[in-house]
Design goal:
Layout (H helix, E strand, L loop, with lengths): L17 E3 L2 E3 L6 E6 L4 E7 L3 H16 L2 H4 L2 H17 L1 H12 L3 H20 L9 E2 L5 E9 L2 E5 L5 H15 L2 E5 L6 H13 L6 E3 L4 H10 L5 E5 L2 H12 L4 E5 L5 E4 L5 H13 L11 E5 L3 H14 L18 H17 L2 E4 L14 E4 L6 H4 L6 E7 L2 H9 L6 E5 L3 H10 L4 E4 L18 E2 L6 H4 L2 E9 L2
Parallel strand pairs: 7-8, 7-10, 8-9, 10-11, 12-13, 12-17, 13-16, 15-16, 17-18
Antiparallel strand pairs: 1-2, 3-4, 5-6, 6-20, 11-19, 14-15
Bound molecules: 1,4-dihydronicotinamide adenine dinucleotide and magnesium ion (MG).
The site of 1,4-dihydronicotinamide adenine dinucleotide (NAI) has 28 residues, from helix 8, helix 9 and helix 12.
């Protein structure tokens, strides 16, 4: 699809109901909520609005599937085969799923079809291979005993995901959960429920037994909070805003649920004067503006060494001037709209704050066009560490450039944040790059690259950017409980 030059046709919307115990059902209340196409602000579908009753039904179905159904008796290898099958079906429908993602989220069709959906398929296949390779240990203990461990599914897992990579977040959550043998109650983001519902239909087609995957669309404080508080849910995996995670942690404390969080950041991207400046400029631009700036790991604090600062800013400004902002269904579009009115308003407000704090707005600074949630690619220089735009997550196409001049100073400033999701360093001095990688307090560090994700590479945050890890073998841990069995040898 990446090579198509005609605007891509809008996909059909087939699933808009709750998916519970293998059945498509309206919400118990009969309520629905609208989901929008962010490029035109028009309603594209009304989706079942789940709440506590629907979550109850979904948890019952998931519990039943965990303890009694075919899933509970299935060999691990067969579980893996069903996951491969799901990945195949998604691959077969990749074009339609990518278009659904563009319709619901507004991301350019080029990104949806070359990044999001291929990564979904890859992630599910990666974890499918793990299903029969989740090993325990045999452990030498004192005395005449034989001790071994089993890694059992943690149980019914509640999964609450955001709207920035709707389908990919489904894969990151379903992959390890299914491999481990858990059952799932998922709530997609209210802004982008459609690809998740489509994937649930494909899971059903793949033969994943009823009740293993349940999807309850709806809002956070209602459907989301009901999942978090439900005594029948053993673990919650959440991706989203830090303050939402704090609420979830409080709500989950009554039942002491296992929690994993993947939250936001204000990731430092450090460019030394000895870097390959061409690669660094392209990388720094991609690090922030990819996905309309709606990335948890966006390189939103760009630290540029003094001696190359002005030249570097010129390169970034030129890329912004040439950036193709517009209809996300046009395959040549590089930047689409923000996801919704709330994000659009929040970003424009941060831009005003940046201007009033005294930063210099080099490009952009306004909305683009007069319909849809488009924001011009915006670049601020003369940004100081204590300014709001250098401290808070903007989650939009707004880049802050800060200057630095020495190594110790930059390490300190890079770490002067409550976040710790990602960081990057650009330098031809490999020793210096590794020293930065060691000293920066972040879950992922990229050297001379940015946003390189792989299903096999753990991802998650230090400090207030998260709890636990997703992806890789590390991502399985949160979906298993370790049971120790000790046998007397008589
Ligand atoms: P959010 O954290 O409110 O939403 C994420 C998910 O959590 C959604 O499915 C939402 O319905 C659910 N949720 C909300 N309140 C909940 C509650 N009390 N209990 C259970 N679930 C709940 O994020 P939102 O409002 O969509 O975006 C706000 C900001 O969060 C963004 O501007 C951005 O800074 C950050 N964010 C970070 C993301 C990341 O990937 N780390 C993704 C999305 C947003
Ligand atoms: Mg919110």
């Amino acid at each position: 699809m990446a090579t198509v030059s005609e605007p891509v046709k809008r996909p059909q919307i087939r699933q808009t109901q709750c998916f519970i115990g293998g059945k498509w059902v309206p919400s118990a209340s009969g309520k629905t909520f609208p989901t929008y196409h962010p490029a035109t602000e028009e309603v594209i579908a009304d989706v079942a609005e789940g709440d506590a009753d629907d979550v109850d039904a979904a948890v019952d179905a998931a519990r039943e599937a965990l303890e009694k159904g075919a899933w509970s008796k299935m060999d691990a290898r067969d579980r893996g085969q069903l996951m491969y099958k799901l990945a195949d079906l998604i691959e077969d429908e990749a074009d339609e799923l990518a278009a659904l993602e563009t319709l619901d989220n507004g991301k350019p069709i080029h990104d949806a079809s070359t990044a999001d959906i291929p990564l979904v398929v890859d992630c599910l296949r990666y974890y499918a291979g793990f299903a029969d390779k989740i090993h325990g240990q045999t452990i030498p203990v004192r005395g005449n005993y034989f001790t071994y461990t089993r890694r059992e599914p943690v149980g019914v897992v509640g999964q609450i995901i955001p709207w920035n990579f709707p389908a990919l977040m489904v894969a990151w959550k379903w992959g390890p959960a299914l491999a481990a043998g858990c059952t799932i109650v998922m709530k997609p983001a209210e802004q982008t429920p459609l690809s998740c519902l489509r994937m649930a239909r494909l899971a059903q087609k793949a033969g994943i037994p009823d009740g293993v995957i349940n999807v309850v669309p709806g809002y956070g404080p209602t459907a989301g909070a009901s999942i978090v508080k439900h005594p029948g849910v053993d673990k919650v995996a959440f991706t989203g805003e830090m303050s939402t995670a704090q609420t979830i942690m409080r709500d989950a404390s009554t039942t002491l649920k296992r929690l994993t969080f993947e939250l936001g950041g204000k990731s430092p991207n450090i460019v030394f004067a000895d870097a390959d400046l061409d690669a660094a400029a392209k990388g720094a631009h991609f690090a922030l503006y990819f996905n309309q700036g709606q990335c948890c790991c966006a390189g939103s604090r760009l630290f540029v060494e003094d001696s190359i600062h002005d030249e570097f800013v010129d390169r970034l400004a030129e890329m912004n001037t040439n950036r193709r902002v517009g209809d996300p269904f046009d395959p040549t579009t590089e930047q689409g709209p923000q996801v919704d009115q709330a994000q659009f308003d929040k970003i424009l407000n941060y831009i005003e704050i940046g201007k009033s704090e005294g930063a210099t707005c080099v490009t952009g600074g306004n909305r683009a066009g007069d319909r849809g949630y488009f924001v011009q690619p915006t670049l601020f220089t003369n940004v100081q560490d204590e300014m709001k735009i250098a401290r808070e997550e903007i989650f939009g196409p707004v880049l802050s450039v800060l200057r630095f001049s020495d190594f110790d100073e930059i390490v300190k400033r890079a770490n002067n944040t409550s976040f710790g999701l990602a960081a990057a360093v650009w330098s031809r001095d490999i020793g210096k790059a590794h020293r930065i990688a060691q000293k920066v307090r972040a879950g992922t560090v990229w050297v001379n690259c940015y946003d390189v994700f792989d299903a096999a590479a753990p991802f998650g945050g230090f400090k207030m950017s998260g709890l636990g890890r997703e992806l890789g073998e590390a991502g399985l841990q949160a979906y298993t409980e370790t049971k120790t069995v000790t046998v007397s040898l008589g």
